[in-house]
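__Record contents__

***
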Amino acid sequence: MSDAPKLEVRNVKFNLDSVPRFWHGGRKSVTTFLNNLSVFFPAGERFFIQSVRAHAKKIKDPGIAEEARAFYAQEGLHTREHIRYNEMLKRHGYPVDDLEERVQWILDMVTRWLPKRWHLAATCALEHFTALMAHFLLADPRLLEGADPNMAALWRWHAAEENEHKGVAFDVYREAGGNYFERCFIMIMATVIFWALVVEYQFRLMRVDGIALSLREWSALGRFLFFEPGGMFGLAREYFSYYRPGFHPWDLDNRNLLDAWKVDYQTAPEYRQA
């Protein structure tokens, strides 16, 4: 917590009225990959808030308690904007309702059958994923080069705040008595389930556009994610740091990236207050 920047709640509402179907510079499979991730966020962010809030009484450090309250607010606003984002995808004819219902069903099963601290461990695991993907997005401007300005701003805002609060759930988990073997086991389970769904959903979304069997589109996506501009190999390296006994999310100190984004936030017209 001592290395974390102060969390700021930014009530931003993005203009999604005229976003083109393939908003990432016409790149179909790349646009779909980012759209795919958005499908997970509304249910996922609500689950994160619920999991941290369930352990609020175990937080003894007043600084962590303050960060947790800002965490709820940030995640709540992310939920609102990704609901709006996903409504845009529905207008384009994507089966978002079906995909979201599946995510919600899985999280409902987790909530119903697993111990509450395991919910928090799953939140830590998934927050690690989102923070790492967000880190590489902020670190390499090429990842959103040519994208619709409003969509690029939305993803950068979400990426910045995911990194800003990346240690909160982890700190609460430690306050709640979480342990090394439990968090590693839950991370393995979360990794398998999350990435299996990502691959399945990518196929289903690409099928709507008639490109699910296109070797050219899958190759373009693989090249974008792993080679040019890439980033996924670096993400994999940082992912495994989670399995170190002394791991903390702020071991990857990227406050410089957050400071650079804050300058853009103050000046770019896409960041309008709600």
Observations:
- The two ends are 29 Å apart (CA to CA).
- The mean pLDDT is 96.
